[in-house]
Amino acid sequence: MVEISGSILSADFANLGKSVEMLTVAGVDYIHVDVMDGSFVSNITIGPVVISAIRQYTKIPFDVHLMINASSNYIENFVDAGADIITIHAESEVHLDGVIKKIKAYGKSAGISLVPTSHHNILEYIICDLDLVLVMTVNPGFGGQRFITSQLNKISSIRNIIQKYSLNTKIAVDGGVNIENAKDIIDAGADILVIGSALFKSNNMSEYIKQLKSL
């Protein structure tokens, strides 16, 4: 069964704690937190202080997606804030293996994310050390964008690499995911659907999640 990571990028930022509670009650498996620095991507969102403040509102894992430059300098901050999974961008670091080792040294799960223009082959040398690969299916920076269909082939290719090495690495897909395209994404090889806009716009968040998990 596919897992759901509820993205708070589309939540009411004046009531983030309440939004985290809503997602938890609705049945998500993770809370997806997008951290943006205004440099790696043009938008600016939240940092460790806010993550620490909303951590108390749920016991489910925090899936923290760092869309920032020099992410290696801030790993400890996000660990201390309550991150359970820390995903960095392949495009933001020269020595990915070193950052992954740093994350794992804190006992946290480590992931690598790829923007739509990045080729999946960049993962092969490091995938054996990854708990998660996050495939961006929109250009990162803002919620509510349209899913880039060509990324389905990338998801399938990454699934083939994972199977090639008999790994337990999970594939998460983030960007424009909704009930209409979820089946295609799952069939391509996704384990986790990161969903924000579609969840918060739904009339019944719990029922929406049940429908996704039944696909």
UniProtKB/TrEMBL annotation:
The active site is at D34, D174. A divalent metal cation binds at H32, D34, H65, D174. This is Ribulose-phosphate 3-epimerase. GO terms for molecular function: D-ribulose-phosphate 3-epimerase activity; metal ion binding. PROSITE patterns: RIBUL_P_3_EPIMER_1, RIBUL_P_3_EPIMER_2. It comes from the Bacteria. InterPro entries: Aldolase_TIM (IPR013785), Ribul_P_3_epim (IPR026019), Ribul_P_3_epim-like (IPR000056), RibuloseP-bd_barrel (IPR011060). The keyword Isomerase applies. Gene3D superfamilies: Aldolase class I (3.20.20.70). GO terms for cellular component: cytoplasm. It comes from Ehrlichia ruminantium (strain Welgevonden). Belongs to the ribulose-phosphate 3-epimerase family. It holds the Pfam family Ribul_P_3_epim. Pathway: Carbohydrate degradation. Its EC number is 5.1.3.1. It is an enzyme of class 5 (isomerase). GO terms for biological process: pentose catabolic process; pentose-phosphate shunt.
